[in-house]
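A further point concerns the way the authors explain their paired sequence and structure data. Since the whole study asks how a given chain folds, the encoding of that fold should be made plain. A single example would do more here than another paragraph of explanation. An entry of this sort, consisting of the sequence and the corresponding backbone structure tokens, reads as follows:

_____
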Amino acid sequence: MEDILKKLNIFVLEDDPDISTFLNVFLGAYFHKVMVKTDNRFRYCDFDEIDIFLLDIEIPFDSGYEVCKRIKTMYPEKPVVFLTAHSQINDKIKGLELGDEFIPKPFEPLELLARIKNLLQDKYGETVYLDEILVDTRAHTIFDRTTRTEIPLSKTESKLFFYLYANINVSLSREQIINRVWGMDGYHNQANSLSVYMNSLRKKVDSANTLIQTIYGYGYKIVDPKERKK
């Protein structure tokens, strides 16, 4: 999970200067980027690259609940954690109804981190970073790495990509691929279709032409970026 955190960004809204400074340093040791705000000088449209939100409820310029509502309207799939000095049951219920986790102050830093990890494990635990994309191996979906938006694939494109991905770094022949994607009887009927679908797939997930390699005269393979750098 630590490897995943190093690729993710967290937004922190906390008006207490001591707590906000501490969270900036503490979370900075685990996350790729920590964006800390102590006031309302931020724009919701700048949250495309934020993966998780940590919000204080009692803030002077607004309510953390209202901030959460706006975030969830724009980014319903992104988890929100409430951090608050209020620990009454009604506060907890409201926080869990609007967000995804509720942590009372004072808090233990490592417990806070553990709860954040649990939320991110559920969302990104089966996600693999490959160049420009994120691959969700559990849901068989692919996301743009920058915007975190899903890249729509046709049924055939999905079969093609995930067969190559299941055999990452292995060269697969055209016959192997066609037999897997279209069936044993598809080789003569789909020989030309493979090139068409491969070009379409590359435009969607590999615009830099570094992830999917053509093995000339043989077939294709997906190359793990870590292997490519060796």
